[in-house]
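worker-03 picked up job from queue 'complexes'. Input manifest follows; two sequence lines, order preserved.
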Amino acid sequence: MEIALARLYNSPTTNVIGVDNMTVSNQTVADIFDQCAKMLQIKGESVHRWMAYSRVAEAIRDLPRDLSAMAQDRTLHDIPGVGKVLAEKIEELLNTGQLAFHQELQKEVPLGVVEMTEIHGVGPKKATLFWKQLNITTVAQLEQAALEGRLATLEGMGKKSEQKILESIQSQKKHRDRTPLGVALPIAKNILAYVLELDEALHGEIAGSIRRGRPTIGDVDLLVAGTNPEAIMQRFVSHGEVEHINGQGKTKSSVVLRNGLQVDLWVLEPSRFGTALQYASGSQMHNIRIREIALKAGYSLNEHALTPINAAGELLSEQEILCATEEAVYAHIGLPWIAPELREDNGEIEAAKAQQLPHLVELQHIRADLHMHTTWSDGSKTIREMAEAARARGLEYICITDHSITSRVANGLGIDRLLQQREEVQRVNAAMGNGFTILHGTEMDIQLNGTLDYPDDILEQLDFVIASLHFGLSQDRATITKRLLNAINNPHVDMIAHMRGQLIMSREPADLDMDQVFAAAQKTGIAFEINSNPKRLDLEAQYARRAVEMGIPISINTDSHRIEQLANLDYGIRTARRGWVPSERVINTWSLERFREWVGKRGKA
DNA sequence: GCCGTTTTCGGCCCGACTGTTTTCAGTCG
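worker-03 finished. Artifact:
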């Protein structure tokens, strides 16, 4: 996990004293807790103490509510890992914009030393060594010292270590951030396929955070079952995109690609594939919990096997249990298989124990795509071409939802063209024949003042109405929330698309008051979209989960502007599964009849 | 610092790889 120091420093909340009318974001609290964890670690505090801060930071990042709202409800203790001390620290941050404990720590450990530990190959011990021995307190100073050969003279260091640190600093300058899922997944598939071309590589899986469906990826984890690890590893490191080999062993190797992405490969014999896949899929916190449960059941669990432990606490290695599948791993410790997208230690283990895991939506459950564009606005294909492509992908119905008039750059439709388009939809529908239906809808803009682009008497005539925020996304919280509520409260609007307006790693989400938004949606019965475009993946999983818990319907759509984008549905499904979304709650898994009935009950024919 | 069909204290997962050692510490996942 990387700490975004720049973001933390630039956040006004850390510099302002005595703020009362300023909201401290969840992100800021998480960043400060992460820094506390790092500083405690450098200070040599107990691993359990600093891990407590790190765990809570991670939990806060995945929270679907504002900490400030939770503090008012007195529900901070509901966050796993938050006890008396951390709840008080969160409240201090929310109330004052700063944390005295954090500032005290900074007097003992310079933040530049924390920053050094973010360099690959530099941990708390090395960072402390450079700081205490050479008085180095910034990454720039560390780079200079490495160039001058001063690091190699230290105890426990040598020329090779110095060179590695130098390379890490320089490579980190090129590639600091995480990688979007939409970039990492195709690369992972490509490299895995390349390795599997080798006869000795029997089968494999993409593991890690890609398998869990996270919207951004730190590194790619691959797993291969095979009989000749050396040959498989050699094949792996000889892939054309490999720029640097971090390490190459018999069971694990790690490389860096030309684009800066790190890829790790584990190779195990097929009989151990299940334990290895379970291990490599993570998350770390899920695995810690699973291994604790294994211990209570009398086993030590690692990536190779489940090993029984006798009363004296000794491993009975000769009795180890091999698992070729993940199902076997979970079964041996008394749990049903848990879908990888749920494995974040976010309640999935408790649900598994209670036999209450959700029946998650799958790609093949989807019968319709309710959000796509054509040449009528900014799409590249005609209604007919989009329909044919959707039918070829196995869908039963689609809804054409071109932009409305306010999106002038997207050639948005005025009322006249919207009505003309309806006639063409009817013509193409007839031409398509039985067994496939094209619905006519719109993706209607919500104007800056909250006004909708079409009047109610026009909306009434459409099969399905989407409302979207496309601009003015940096309005203040009260303004943009009111604007969105205006759309949610219109009975003719059936769905809000890509609600928060985020673009992964390039645009922050709008500052919506999500408590108000969810409450309004629960009242009106409107659906929320999970947009499958890998640049959006909006709603994010934690909000999708909250929607499910509140009974708000979900729709998973591609927002396609080109035929190839229809395949993006896979990303939306992964996001929905991370959000614990069961298929019966997804309106486009329903038959056309049921879907029409649902829309009809919302106030239209 | 958290947590509890081992509850208010004593626990809190497990192994691979590298470089510097000469048996292991540090880092990473």
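worker-03 released lock.
The two ends of chain A are 50 Å apart (CA to CA).
Chain A has four domains: 5-174, 179-268, 273-353, 363-601.
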